[in-house]
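User: My collaborator sent over this chain with a note saying "see what the structure looks like." That's all I know about it. Can you take a look?
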Amino acid sequence: MHAHQVLILPGWQGSGPLHWQMRWVEKYGYQVVVQHDWLRPLRGDWLSRLDDVMSDLSEPIFLVAHSLGCIQVASWASISKQTHKVKGALLVAPADVEAQPMQDAFSSWRPVTLKKIPFKTTLFSSQNDPFCSVARAKTFAEAWGSQWVDTGLTGHLNADSQLGDWPEGHAFLNDLMKVYEDGH
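Assistant: Without extra context I'll predict from the sequence alone. Here is the result:
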């Protein structure tokens, strides 16, 4: 696979240099979908930005989303005409934007899209994520048609979780890409 075929979708405020997403960008050359405003994320803006980036790419594309980026993927997949380009996605630690205290900060993201995503997805969540309960993560996985992976007590699966390069997550991405390659 070529590096340009993997898009990194950070969540609110972006992902800092110690976050596994940015470490993957540094190590593997993946492309970050850079938002115009990381601090005041408006759903329409973020969905338009992803669609703009997608229009310049050809399939196969794999998405790697974290936190609000997971909600972005689900929302985008329900409206975009470009979903056929995406062959799979990792949805890591989705943020429950409908839960308190996040409701006010993410009002444009409500309601969370709960439609089946038209490409293969794996959702990773932890037992102690402060931004999404296990029950809610399972609800997202079921609604989106995602394989659900319990990562144990790993917090929000961000830099604070001290995952380093998160090799286990990258192995899932490699497996997803290999399944696609083997099928074509």
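A starting point for your reply to your collaborator: The helical segments are 20-28, 43-55, 68-77, 134-144, 167-183.
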